[in-house]
């Protein structure tokens, strides 16, 4: 069973702090990794994707990938109340015929003023 | 608007009825995916198309579910003989490229309630 694991939270941080969201995955052959934000009752919205080991920064967001440890994380700097949402980690895993996106259950983030 | 669109946004049906959902992907995207999402869970893969070819279906997908993508443009997902357990958000996503590595862009979803 190929899996993506996330702590369901909630993770509560004060406004202006750094929020750190973590994800582990089981398929060592995975090639691409994604973070999505999902507000309650809405569909997932792509935040970032990362393919190579190391850090990738986009504005207040930084994705970090460590393939050896099968670990991907998302840092949100200067967290705002509007960042309060569920953050989904997705990993494209090879199922024998194709690479299929597999999602974690998501981590609920609450940013309090 | 060049994003992914889905229709209808909400559907209430009685158990045993058939329902059909439509997805229009971003026009230049080759891949189209269908997912189901229930409360507290991440999206669960159902099936995907590369252009008009359906290349993979989840082993968890009941025979009551069928999907098409004629001419490689829009796609439909049909659920026959609906059951209460089919109540969920049905999400469509499209993706550029043809190797399965690329990011996906989701539509707004169709929320199905089976009574």
Order of helices and strands of chain A: EEEEEEEEEEE
User: What is the share of helical residues of chain B?
Assistant: under 10%
* Mean of all residue-level pLDDT scores of chain A: 94
Estimate the helix proportion of chain A, in percent: under 10%
Give the helices and strands of chain B as they follow along the chain: EEEEEEEEEEE
The average pLDDT score of chain B comes to 93
The CA-CA distance between the termini of chain B, in Å, is 34 Å
Uncertain regions of chain B: pLDDT < 50 for 5+ in a row?
none
List keywords for this structure.
heterodimer; A: 113 residues; mainly beta; 6-stranded mixed sheet; 5-stranded antiparallel sheet; 11 strands; 0% helix; B: 115 residues; 7-stranded mixed sheet; 4-stranded antiparallel sheet; globular
Word description of this protein:
The complex is a heterodimer of chains A (113) and B (115). Chain A is mainly beta and 113 residues long. Helices cover 0% and strands 56% of the residues of chain A. Chain B has 115 residues and is an all-beta fold. The relative contact order of chain B is 0.34. The model of chain B has no long low-confidence stretch (mean pLDDT 93). At the A-B interface, strand 5, strand 9 and strand 10 of A face strand 5 and strand 10 of B.
Question: Layout of SSEs?
Answer:
The complex is a heterodimer of chains A (113) and B (115).
Chain A lengths: L3 E2 L5 E4 L4 E7 L7 E6 L6 E6 L3 E5 L2 E6 L4 E6 L8 E10 L4 E5 L3 E6 L1
Parallel strand pairs in A: 2-11
Antiparallel strand pairs in A: 1-3, 3-8, 4-5, 4-9, 6-7, 7-8, 9-10, 9-11
Chain B lengths: L4 E3 L2 E4 L5 E6 L6 E7 L6 E7 L2 E5 L7 E4 L6 E5 L8 E8 L9 E2 L3 E5 L1
Parallel strand pairs in B: 2-11
Antiparallel strand pairs in B: 1-3, 3-8, 4-5, 4-9, 5-6, 7-8, 9-10, 9-11
